[in-house]
Amino acid sequence: MPGIIPVGIDQDPHIRLCRDIIARTKSKYNFMPISSIYHKFTPALDGGMKMSKSKPESMIELPEDPKSAVRKMKNAKTGGRESLEMQKKLGGEPDKCMIFEMYKQHLIDNDKILNEVFSDCKKGILMCGDDKKNGCAYMESFMDNFIAQLEAARKTVSKLNFINFK
């Protein structure tokens, strides 16, 4: 059965190794070569390269209790300046903000809204505290919806007919 494996670009050598092994054993076992789809890393909430279980406060799990996810969002790194006055004068730096990164990758699907948040931040109209409050509301809604859909899917799984490979 063909498979498409979602991976980060750092996993590409493993995908290539699997393809090589499959090519060498194909005549004996008739395996189907795997394919991959590459995903962008979601940075850690502390601004690190990627979320990691070694730093549980810097990552949000799926599913996670909405209150826990919101608490982590409140502690996330932002693109704010050293002071409120400087941020109003110079604007924020959404490209360094993990709240904005969560918006881009997971929380806001509407490009118009995303562009407004970006613009307001850059102009110094949207302050980090207000942005975090908005981000927490988005995260709570996202997680509530995710958990509800997960529970609905779990009820459906027992009704599915899976292929038996005997």
How does this model look, in words?
The protein has two domains: 36 residues, no CATH class; 102 residues, Tyrosyl-Transfer RNA Synthetase, CATH 1.10.240. It is 52% helix and 6% strand. The protein has six helices and two strands; from the N terminus they run βαβααααα. Strands 1-2 form a two-stranded parallel sheet. Strand 1, helix 1 and strand 2 form a beta-alpha-beta unit. Helix 2 runs antiparallel to helix 6 and helix 4 runs parallel beside helix 6. It is elongated, with a radius of gyration of 21 Å. The two termini are 13 Å apart. The relative contact order is 0.11.
Quick summary of this structure?
The protein is mostly helical and 166 residues long.
Instruction: Tally the structural domains.
Output: 2
Find the structural class using helix and strand composition. mainly alpha
Rg (C-alpha, Å): 21 Å
CATH fold-level assignment of the largest domain: Tyrosyl-Transfer RNA Synthetase
- Fraction of residues in H or I helices: 40-55%
| Proportion in β-strands | 5-15%
Describe the protein's topology.
Blueprint: E1 4-8, H1 12-29, E2 35-39, H2 66-74, H3 84-90, H4 98-107, H5 111-122, H6 128-157
Helix pairs in contact: 2-6, 4-6
Main features:
single chain; two-stranded parallel ribbon; 6 helices; mainly alpha; 2 strands; Tyrosyl-Transfer RNA Synthetase; 166 residues
